[in-house]
Amino acid sequence: MTPAAADDGPTGIHCRLDELLAARGMTLTRLSELVGVSVVNLSVLKNDRARAIRYSTLGAICRALECEVGDLLTVEP
Prior knowledge:
Layout: E1 13-15, H1 17-24, H2 28-35, H3 39-46, H4 55-65, H5 69-72, E2 73-75
């Protein structure tokens, strides 16, 4: 099985959404309003339970938080 096919386990990708929101004094609800994504879906991303994210969503989050993709998503060993 290829690594990409093994999508049932941990991905090793960590989302730093909590840290970025705190640093900007922004709530998840406000981010939801800015990017047009439900609070529930943002919460899934924030808690590292997301399996995928659209590039358009990723771009909208980065614009709202004034950050780069690498500031939001990191690879954990």
